[in-house]
Every structure is written in structure tokens, then in C-alpha cells.
Amino acid sequence: MKWIGALLVILTCFFTGMDYSRRLAQRPKALRLWKNALLILEAEMVYSHATVQNACENIAKQIGDPLSGFFLSVSKRLQYEKTDLYLIWEEEVDQFWTRAALSKEDKEIIKQFGKTLGQHDIIQQKKYIQLAIVHLENKHKESIEMNQRYGKVSGSLGLLSGVFIALLLL
Predict the structure, then answer these.
(1) What Pfam families does its record include (predicted)?
(2) pLDDT in the model for residue 117
(3) How far apart are CA 117 and CA 41, in angstroms?
(4) pLDDT tens, 114-159?
(5) Domain extent for 84
(6) Residue 22 belongs to a domain
(7) DSSP assignment letter at 45
(8) Is residue 129 part of a domain?
(9) What is the distance between the alpha carbons of residues 166 and 14, in angstroms, rounded to a whole number?
(10) Residue 31 near residue 135, CB atoms below 8 Å
(11) How far is 21 from 52, CA to CA, in rounded Å?
(12) Is 169 a member of any domain?
């Protein structure tokens, strides 16, 4: 019975380390998707003079999953609900973050951007979009560095810590 428990501890720690490694590898891709989405949003709002609802709908058609679902949901809620844009944005960001491989700092950047969305004229809106893109670019570089530094090690570290805990328990 002890051996089964030890094996379960080892496997749990190993899969926890592998999950952390997977999230580190997915974060740069997710940040790049967000950056691309904001660039499309900028083009839609600044050059096409599209409303936020139409811009979100167009982004959903052009960007890949899971981000397309986020923008499609924002677009549909803007169409049918008469609530404040930021409240819809904030609720959708919170719901999206349960499925995303992003950090709390990334979430805060997106939420802060949502506060400015649709609140200013086109020139100011373009500046806020560019500011959010710069912040996301910095986080993207940081996430690539973290993935290179800790990505491959975390699976092995999970396995070794599981073996260590199992040895302590036996």
C-alpha cells in the first residue's frame, strides 16, 4: 500500500511540473495572439472607424482560438446588453483567464486596456492601444525568457520532488 501511495505522489508531482512547463510554453503564444488582436483592433477602429462591437466581431473572424471566442462573446454581449463596455470586458476577461496560460500581470494589462476602450477619440484610442501593445511586448519577451530558463527543467524538477517526498514518506 505504501508503494502505491509513493507512486501516486511521484506521478502527481511529475504531472504538476509538466503542467507548469506546458503553461510556460503556451504563454508566449497567447501574448502574441493578444498583441495581434490589439493590432487588428487598432486598424478596425482607427482606419475603418468601426464601432467596438463591430471591431470585436471582425477580430473574432481573423484571430485563432481561444481568443476568437473572447472577442465573439464581447461582441455578442455588446449587441444584446445595454451595460457599460468595461463591465462586459472585465467579466469576459475574468471568464477567459480560467482557460488562458497567462499571468496575473497580463490579465491586469488587458483589464486596464479595457477601461480605456471606447472612452476616447480615435487619436487617444490609438495611443492607448499602442501602450497596451508595448506592455504586452515586454511581457512576451519576459515569457520567452522564462520558458527558456524554466520550461524544460520544471518537468524534471516535478519528478525529482515527487521522488523526494515519496522517500520522506516511506
Answers:
(1) Spore_III_AB (PF09548)
(2) 85
(3) 10
(4) 888 878 788 888 899 999 999 999 999 999 998 888 877 887 888 8
(5) 28-151
(6) no
(7) I
(8) yes
(9) 12
(10) no
(11) 36
(12) no
